[in-house]
């Protein structure tokens, strides 16, 4: 495999900000949005048919280095995930395994409209429990697409408003996804329900249905009734089920004929052929976490991210965006850059809302 130029990391929290396949598509009647190689500014929430804020192209061009706006996709016909072996005190491994398999299956069983129909051309499989409980991507060691639970401390800022976070590593010049990891906030302040949640509880199935969409390249939607809606309302279960907006979005990425829809800057035809089915993570599979390597220009992507100026003066990490899902709270987007020169990483996470009984609080998207 040729040396990688260096991945970029995007962080997206279960919540609100979404992107479409191309900038021009953001102004069409399509409500779904695709995650792209340029992160959204803090505080932005999509509306139906509008995935980008005004002057988004100019903002991306002003980043250092400038960021292209390319939709993300998995090239492989099948990808994998792995659950942290000890899972969570709130969500035992067997329950996590069963419910995550069902969440991914909802996405991958989507039948696309149009002549002849056909199912989306991507499958997802569980490779089993892993010992690694870190979100990372290595360009010179084995990897795992890990799903991690944080029972004691949520390691990200705004812990009262984040339910989950999905981090995606991708090629900044094509949008191809190299790696995806998911974090679930299972701290005592977030009461996760495996069945129907109480009025102030958080529905685990809704959270993972949203996060698995981020895993596959979907961004937040402004469409009511979508699982990718930027806000989750406490005590509800409606996001367990995919809406038309969600399925149309997935069909726009993974065409039934096996091809992937990409930016015309990547392929003039707007599509590239998908790769054969191989669920093995990039650079091979390993259950253990990768070990940090000495820093170098072609080194492992475990190094710290550099900072980029964000709209409004707030810093964003280069090459990454995060969005969180919350109960009545917006998702956040966070950006960070990995040291692997050719790939990018995106993290997507839901907010765990700190909600008053009468009026849910709205969180930020960044």
Give a brief outline of the structure:
The chain has 366 residues and is an alpha/beta fold. The chain has helices at residues 56-61, 93-108, 204-215, 244-253; strands at residues 8-13, 78-83, 123-126, 146-150, 162-171, 177-185, 192-193, 202-203, 231-232, 259-261, 271-273, 307-309, 315-317, 326-327, 333-337, 343-351. Strands 1, 2, 3, 4, 5, 6, 15 and 16 form an eight-stranded mixed sheet that branches. A two-stranded parallel sheet has the order 7-8.
Account of the protein in words:
The protein has 366 residues and is of the alpha/beta class. It has a single domain, classed as Collagenase (Catalytic Domain) (3-Layer(aba) Sandwich), CATH 3.40.390. 12% of the residues lie in helices and 20% in strands. It has four helices and 16 strands. The protein has helices at residues 56-61, 93-108, 204-215, 244-253; strands at 8-13, 78-83, 123-126, 146-150, 162-171, 177-185, 192-193, 202-203, 231-232, 259-261, 271-273, 307-309, 315-317, 326-327, 333-337, 343-351. The strands form five sheets. Strands 1, 2, 3, 4, 5, 6, 15 and 16 form an eight-stranded mixed beta sheet that branches. It has a two-stranded parallel ribbon with strand order 7-8. Strand 12 and strand 13 (315-317) form a beta hairpin. Helix 2 crosses helix 3 (204-215). The protein is globular, with a radius of gyration of 18 Å.
């Amino acid at each position: 495999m040729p040396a990688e130029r260096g991945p970029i990391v995007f962080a997206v929290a279960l919540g609100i900000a979404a992107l479409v396949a191309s900038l021009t598509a953001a102004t069409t009647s399509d409500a779904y949005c695709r995650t792209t190689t340029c992160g959204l500014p803090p505080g932005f929430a999509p509306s139906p048919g509008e995935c980008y804020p005004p002057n988004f192209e100019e903002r991306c061009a002003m980043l250092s280095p400038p960021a292209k706006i390319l939709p993300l996709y998995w090239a492989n016909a099948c990808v994998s995930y792995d659950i942290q072996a000890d899972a969570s005190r709130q969500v035992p491994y067997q329950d996590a395994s069963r419910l995550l398999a069902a969440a991914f299956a909802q996405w991958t069983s989507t039948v696309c409209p149009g002549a002849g129909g056909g199912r989306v051309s991507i499958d997802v499989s569980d490779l089993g429990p892993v010992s690694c409980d870190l979100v990372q991507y290595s360009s010179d060691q084995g990897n795992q697409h890990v799903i991690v639970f944080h029972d004691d401390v949520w390691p990200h800022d705004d812990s009262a408003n984040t339910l989950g976070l999905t981090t995606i590593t991708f090629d900044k010049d094509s949008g191809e996804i190299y790696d995806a990891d998911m974090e679930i906030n299972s701290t005592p302040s977030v009461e996760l329900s495996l069945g129907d949640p109480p009025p102030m509880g958080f529905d685990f199935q809704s959270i993972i249905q949203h996060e698995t969409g981020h895993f596959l390249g979907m961004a937040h939607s402004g469409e009511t009734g979508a699982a990718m809606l930027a806000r989750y309302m406490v005590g509800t279960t409606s996001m367990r089920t995919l809406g038309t907006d969600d399925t149309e979005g997935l069909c726009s990425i993974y065409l039934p004929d096996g091809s992937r829809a990409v930016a015309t800057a990547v392929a003039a035809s707007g599509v590239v052929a998908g790769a054969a089915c191989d669920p093995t993570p990039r650079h091979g599979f390993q259950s253990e976490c990768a070990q940090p390597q000495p820093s170098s220009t072609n080194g492992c992507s475990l190094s710290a991210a550099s900072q980029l100026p964000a709209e409004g003066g707030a810093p964003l990490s280069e090459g990454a965006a995060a969005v969180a899902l919350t109960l009545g709270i917006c998702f956040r987007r966070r950006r960070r850059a990995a040291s692997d020169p050719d790939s990018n990483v995106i993290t997507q996470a839901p907010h765990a809302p700190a909600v008053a009984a009468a009026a849910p609080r709205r969180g930020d998207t960044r």
